[in-house]
Predict the structure.
Amino acid sequence: MVEKSLGQHFLINEDPINASIEASKKMGLNQESHVLEIGPGPGTLTRSLLKTGARVTSIEISADACDFLREEIKSDKFSLVQSDALKSPWPEETTHIIANIPYGISSPILRRIQDLHQSSALMGVCLLVQREFGNRMTMKIPSKDRGPLGISLWFDFDCQKVQDVPRSYFRPQPDVESSIITMMPVNRGPITPSERSLGIALSSWCFARRRRKIRTSLRYRPRSVMRLIKASTAEWDRILINLETNDNDLGRIIQMRPEDLSPPQWIELAKGISSTK
């Protein structure tokens, strides 16, 4: 049943499962919900989800796990998809995503969650993830845990830690600690799609050069950013001069290092670059 090659570690203690269910109920999980579960394994979480009365669609890549689930779980509210969750279509009517996701695909799973939320708004997400990864999702300790991951998620969700989960709660035991993280959808106010994309691109570029000040990183002519605002090399150089000679908040922001900027400051920088263009 356990496939180490897939990065699967299955819960053998129900405390984290109960905590995930209770946290999800606070985000509206009820008998009218449609839950997407990724990597159900032996179905421990699946059974608890079905007890809430919600519809559950589980995507599982392991053929052995799917055979087991088909034998063990008999419910007209349960649908099983044998597929790769990174490639399989996700139900557009999904209201919640609740899962113990394989740690090796955490980042691409989150990108898919954000894409789904953009096209069909979710009510809530609850994930069991590697603890260090969860700290970056929640940006637990600024500036230590700030980075492109947390900033990107900030646009769509308020990410909070529910609890930490010890290694002994898994079979086999993973080499890392784990945490349960909730993602509650939020409205961050008047941010345009272009400002959002620009803010994410700016943070990704600058965090790749974490030790440098924003001003120094932008001097390297970030092609991804320049493409978004359709700026030529000459136009970008002019934008940078305007930023460096700015004596207001933008001028102070570019003197900072990326981990010192809060998410709203990345938006302020994005808006400033767009208006200067």
